[in-house]
Automatic annotation (TrEMBL):
Entry protein name: Cytidine deaminase
Gene Ontology BP annotations: nucleotide biosynthetic process; pyrimidine nucleotide metabolic process
Cofactor(s) this protein requires: Zn(2+)
Source species, domain of life: Bacteria
Alphabetical list of Pfam families matching this protein: dCMP_cyt_deam_1
Residues annotated as domain CMP/dCMP-type deaminase: 8-144
Residues the entry annotates as binding Zn(2+): 77, 102, 105
Keywords in alphabetical order: Hydrolase, Metal-binding, Nucleotide biosynthesis, Zinc
Similarity comment: family membership: Belongs to the cytidine and deoxycytidylate deaminase family.
Species of provenance: Amedibacillus dolichus
Cited InterPro entries: APOBEC/CMP_deaminase_Zn-bd (IPR016192), CMP_dCMP_dom (IPR002125), Cytidine_deaminase-like (IPR016193), dCMP_deaminase (IPR016473), dCMP_deaminase-rel (IPR015517), Deoxycytidylate_deaminase_dom (IPR035105)
Length: 161
């Protein structure tokens, strides 16, 4: 008998986004993204972090204070990193992300040709950024799919014998 309790494709790719988020050094918000083509092949992956050459020891992760002393001007969101990390055309792909994309990432998603956004949390739905994001994504005909649960990924290490 084959196993019947396997992860669905959506669970599998969202789990991958969560695994990627575990690379983020942001002390407050870890977001991961996975981009998948219509053949169920992973074509890219990313998490929120600073640009290449901008080291975590030199740039701030603060959320409050003078703008240039916070993370906001420097951090690259998971979705944008996944788009920029791709070495292939993203036309027709789906992006899996734990949190609904912001308006800046929405622009990159649309321009990259991604046609479907699968997300878990929409906790910033009432913010101007998310309202603008949805307005653009809907106008561009990008499908928005919220999965009704959150994948909880636990990674543990055991010493090899
Ligand atoms: Zn974003």
């Amino acid at each position: 008998m084959k196993r019947s309790d396997v992860l669905t494709w959506d669970e599998y790719f969202m789990g991958l986004a969560h695994l990627s988020a575990k690379r983020s050094k942001d002390p407050n918000t870890q977001v991961g993204a996975a981009i998948v083509n219509d053949q169920h092949k992973v074509v890219s992956i990313g998490y929120n972090g600073f640009p290449n050459g901008c080291h975590d020891d030199d740039f701030p992760w603060e959320r409050e204070g003078d703008f240039c002393a916070t993370k906001y001007p420097y951090v690259v969101h998971a979705e944008l990193n996944a788009i920029l990390n791709s070495s292939t055309n993203l036309q027709g792909c789906s992006i899996y992300v734990s949190l609904f994309p912001c308006n800046e990432c929405a622009k990159a998603i649309i321009q990259s040709g991604i046609r479907r956004v699968v997300y878990e949390s929409d906790k910033y739905a009432d913010t101007d950024g998310t309202i603008a994001s949805k307005r653009m994504l809907k106008a561009a005909g990008v499908e928005l799919v919220q999965i009704p649960y959150t994948i909880d990924l636990q990674v543990s290490k055991k010493e090899n014998k």
